[in-house]
Amino acid sequence: MTKVNLLENGPLVIVGEHTITHPDGTQEVKPSRASYCRCEKSANMPFCDGAHKG
Ligand code: FES
Predict the structure, then answer these.
(1) Is 48 a member of any domain?
(2) Is residue 47, in this structure, part of any structural domain at all?
(3) Is residue 1 within 8 Å of 15, Cβ to Cβ?
(4) Other C-beta atoms lying within 10 Å of the C-beta of residue 48
(5) What is the pTM assigned to this prediction?
(6) Ligand 1 atom at shortest distance from the alpha carbon of 10
(7) Residue 40 CA: which ligand 1 atom is closest?
(8) Is 36 inside a domain boundary?
(9) Residue-number span of the structural domain to which 8 is assigned
(10) pLDDT of the residue at 32
C-alpha cells in the first residue's frame, strides 16, 4: 500500500510506488519513496533538498 506522510514544517513523503506527472506532461515512476517540497525553497523542485531546515 502506498502511504503519504506530511512532515511538520517539511516535505510530503510518499512511500510506495507512484507516478509523478510533471507540469510539461512527462511522467516519472518512483518505485519506492520520494519527498516532495512544500516550502518552495528547494533547488531541486519538485523534490525536497533539505532547504526547509535552514
Ligand atoms: S520541504 Fe524540504 S526543501 Fe521544501
Answers:
(1) no
(2) no
(3) no
(4) 22
(5) 0.90
(6) 1
(7) 4
(8) yes
(9) 3-42
(10) 96
